[in-house]
Amino acid sequence: MSNIPETGRTRRVTIRLVVLQVLVLSLLATLGGRLWYLQIRNGQEYTAAASQNHIREVVEPAVRGEILDASGRVLAGNTTKLVVSVSRTSLLQQKDGGQAVLARLAGVLSMSEKDVHDKVRLCNATTPKPCWNGSPYQPIPVTTDATTQQAMQIMERREDFPGVTAQPTALRQYPSPAGANAAQMLGYLSPVTDEEVKKTARKTGREKYQPADQIGRAGLESVYDDDLRGTSGVNRLEVDNLGRVIGSAGTTPAVSGNNLVTSIDARVQALVEKELLEAMQVARKTWDTVTNSYYKADSGAAVVMDVRTGRIIAMASAPSYDPNLWVGGISAKDYKTLTDKKSNYPLLNRAIQGQSAPGSTFKVVSTSAAVQAGYSLDGHYLCSPSMTIGNREFKNFEGESFGPITLEKALEVSCDTVFYGLAYDQWQKDGGTRPKKKPADWFYRTAHQFGLGATTGIDLPSEVPGRVPDRKWKQDYWDANHEDWCRQAKSGKHDYATQVAAENCADGYVMRAGDSVNYSIGQGDTLVTPIQMARIYSALANGGTLFRPAIAKAVVGPDGKLVREIKPKVDGRLPDNRKTLQYINQATAGVVTEGTAAWKFTSAGWPQDKIELHAKTGTAEVVGKQTTSWLDTYSDDYAVVMTISQGGTGSGGSGDAIRKIYEGLYGVKDGKVDPKLALLPKPQSTLPKFNADGSAVVKTADTDTAPGKAPTPGKAPTADTAPALAPAGGIFTTASGPLESTALPPDRNALWADPRQLRRLA
């Protein structure tokens, strides 16, 4: 290796210096490029971001829109209360995690320290209520009922209560106009979660959730939340590095939510709720000769529908509760009551979520199916005391016999054996236990044409579809359960359930004769909801149009101007022609004048010559429970449907209540029609008028309460005040203990066999 005399450096040292110089120059070039990118290329973006570091946003919640009835009465509105709130962020910045502040706050509010602490803890999978399920950065309300004195104590001693505020706040209120409760239909609010806020962070306006927002979690509050919620305002404050306010960076004002006008009439709603509860109370004092006990009448539902539009005039579900329990956060006691089995789940809206067999009210569907299958309306069919299929006897109610009768008479007197015979004959034509490649299945096909087995699309959440137990359902049900059936069949037991499991294991997918004949009278595995039956009977009344049930009529701005009208929607038509519809109408009118409902209507003074009513009674048998009462009716204007679980016979359990609802609608008293007493002789088609300030104009006459003792406003029946309830499986299930016996005549709709209890038929 040679030396370089001028410098004394070796060649290796020179190479290393060159490499080092290249690295330094590369780093300088990279740094320069990055500075150019940050300061020139994206300079404005980062300058704007930096400026936000000293901006703090204060959210101003928007006033939520009101939910109004058809005349403008407020079903869900707002009220101002003194709300004491706590910032968790501020508490966590303190050395003791805010324990001392919460203790002092509990003393001022006359609450226990535990209750205050529970209010501000965050909800998770293991934390019981009460807890906070909203954003952890949002002030958490501790009480919504603070007094002025309590608020002054907190605000005058700010140093003792860091992170605690006491200020007037708009809260949701459910005022129960005319005594109308409508809890399940209206729904309730709760705070947005932190996750929900993050999901909408990139959105703007009404679509963006703010930490202070309350959103609908059930009922109309949920479905129309976007319309009702409004847009929160934002006040942007400039602060220094110590967080002190030094100026304003602009304000975006809050925009109030729109109002929702519904088709509900508060007076009719109150009347329907009252009559449903009274019917259940009467049933609980009625002796059931089959079970030798009083009827439990544990739950029920009722619907009043405008037959020409599908709009809901009233919808009741029992047991119910006070929707104001949710305002400001629900207590642990109230939440437990609403979700406890003993209360029989009052949060359920049984008008759209209660499923049960429809009993003989289903026979209008079977009549239509028989006509489509080719059976004559002019024909006569044997109404015998019983019918034997294979080794099983299917009885008519109490062995009644009317001989050869028409389908009209069969509907009127609700003869089971006529429909047994029709369904069995059609089952044989379809191939029996060895069906044709493409069986006609008229009875099942017609049920789907009537809209059963699917949701109606009503503007309420969590509607259930019911069930049409056709061949596809049988196969799907077998696929899902045959392993369990086979396992039980091999258990070696010799009880009845194991015998049935063995049969189902082998060929539970086969449509048997017992399945078909039971199905024809609305028994067995068939399930319907009250809203489905209300739509069917409305279609019978209006000439065959199946409207989509709806509650909302229009969205109106806070200034009273129309935002959009929600028009009725047609989903289809019944498969019947005009002649068949007229035939069924004549038969259902006969049910009121001479048939199974006559003793509750014309014999009780109903003016059938002035206002013609149509009806079909139903008494559905349920394994291990008392009978479910169904009564489906209609006039030229309304369809009124009521069902009571373990409530007795169709007309016996619901007849008086439905007659009284019609009396209230049309103003009938002592068998005479008095228009002055009528609550709503015709459905209200027009929207209410609004004042200049956006409030609805409600006529003085419209504010009268419904006839009879309507529930006191704000005192709707709650799960706490309802009789003790005990579930017995299914949706319509509870128990009560009536003390007196009032025997009610049964109607002719009983069925004593269930296909799941039948042995395989030959």
Describe the protein's architecture and organization.
- It contains 23 helices and 27 strands.
- The strands form 9 sheets. Strands 2, 3, 4, 5, 10, 20 and 21 form a 7-stranded mixed beta sheet that branches. The chain has a 5-stranded antiparallel beta sheet with strand order 14-13-25-24-23, with helices on both faces. It has a 3-stranded antiparallel beta sheet with strand order 1-8-9, with no helix packed on it.
- Residues 701-762 have low confidence and may be disordered.
Q: What is the CA-based Rg, rounded?
A: 34 Å
Structure annotation, total helices: 23
- Structural class by helix and strand composition: alpha+beta
Distance between the termini: 111 Å
Please mark out the parts with pLDDT under 50 across 5 or more consecutive residues, or reply none.
Answer: 701-762
Shape: globular
Strand content: 15-25%
Residue share in helix: 25-40%
Describe the main β-sheet briefly. Answer: 7 strands, mixed
The whole-number mean of residue pLDDT values reads 85
Secondary structure tally: strands: 27
